[in-house]
Amino acid sequence: MKIRLGMDRNDRRKTLSALREPKLEEARQFLMERTQGLSPIAPYFQEERYDTKDGDYCVTRFDVTPFRGAKSVPDVFLALQQAIFNAEIIISETSGNITIREDDELGDNNLSHMRFLSESSLGVQLETNLVLFLDRPQCQMKDVDYAENGRYTIMALDFVDEDKKYPYKPNERIRRDFTTITMISSYQDHTAGIKGEGELVVVITRWAATILRRPSNSISSRVWDDLRNFHHRWPDLMLNCVRQTLGLSALNLVVPK
């Protein structure tokens, strides 16, 4: 389901509103299939990095991250939402890339349209155009395949393929695309040594694909490698922000020089 947006504000909102449920359902079904056979509370990590035949640099990643010590699904949801909404600050502080964020007001708390314009430390311009589709935390009051006692939430982040109001400028900026589907769910850990109802474990299950589009104009190996290095660190940075917001210990990340 590609995202194509026109000029009219109302039409843009209607287009994104119509895509919300299909995007979230697609995300839910994909994660249900991807997690079959995995322990819902055990850490899991798989990542691939590769160059396409067109020269684009891609990173695909699937991870399951338990947040022991987190109090609830809504708490983790709000922490992750805060990290996404502060993405320009995270990018600027961790990479040195000066980043500006522009929001397209949609009048819907379950939708967010964000554009990011960055300049790397080596003077390269980048652009990202994203839509965040949200499913508020809920409890179905019954066990489901993807959450114990039905406590879960889904969010899907996807790039805009075509935007007539904010067209991509490939001759001026390098395009950076993100697609991320995330489920936050909770379980009780009944392993040995834990009595009673068990320990509450809130889990983030996530699949992400990021694409750094190779520019048509020439670019030095040094500049391209610098962009690639930050590109594959982004998912870890977001999770560390969630940990810090929740008062949990952050992971030590190596920052490339």
Summarize the structure.
The protein has five helices and ten strands. With 257 residues, the protein is an alpha+beta fold.
**What overall form do the CA principal axes indicate?**
globular
**H/E topology pattern:** EHEEHHEEEEEEEHH
Helix run count: 5
Radius of gyration: 19 Å
Low-confidence stretches: 253-257
Averaged pLDDT: 85
Structural class: alpha+beta
Largest sheet, if any? 8 strands, mixed
Distance between the termini: 38 Å
As a percent range, the share of helical residues equals: 25-40%
Account of the 3D structure:
By secondary structure, the protein is of the alpha+beta class. Helix content is 28%, strand content 37%. It is built from 5 helices and 10 strands, in the order E-H-E-E-H-H-E-E-E-E-E-E-E-H-H. It has helices at 9-34, 73-85, 87-95, 221-231, 234-246, and strands at 4-5, 44-51, 57-68, 98-104, 111-119, 125-139, 151-159, 162-163, 174-189, 199-212. Strands 2, 3, 4, 5, 6, 7, 9 and 10 form an 8-stranded mixed β-sheet that branches. Strand 4 and strand 5 form a beta hairpin. Helix 2 (73-85) packs across helix 5 (234-246) and helix 3 (87-95) crosses helix 5 (234-246). It is globular and about 60 Å long. The termini are far apart. Mean pLDDT is 85; it is low at 253-257.
